[in-house]
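EI: anyone free to look at a 153-residue chain?
SC: sure, send it
EI:
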Amino acid sequence: MKTAKGISVFLAALLAAASASVAYADNCGGRYNGFTVSSESVEVVKGHVIGASTNEHAVTSDNSPYSGIGHCVNSFVTTPDGKTRFTYACVEKDKDGDSWSHSGGLEPGADKGTWTQIGGTGKFASKNGSGGWWQGVMAEGKVFSGTWGGNCK
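SC: here you go
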């Protein structure tokens, strides 16, 4: 397993979102902060790398109920041309115990990632938000932070 190379590729995909400064027509937004719990990758054949990681994080918002703590499972594939596709799924829980799940990703060459709510309980049961995340910052391959926004219906 080529964990060091895989982590670098994963971080490159995540940090590709850092250059975006364009905001969505948002009605909600906030910040995310977290840390990588585990990360592993394998170069299956020369130039084809596949990997996965997990993280724990906090999501905050001053203008929506989307504030809580959560866990994510992430995956990436890097092709021989050097392009990396990143996908994820997360489950979050707020202070009242209500939860929401979302999935998204980052396409090769994109300057921001996407998110779409895929389920929820309590106050999140009837929500169907979506949007983006950007301005991702990674420190030493473990700690990350950034902003998110979208339409929190």
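EI: The chain has one domain: 3-148.
SC: 👍
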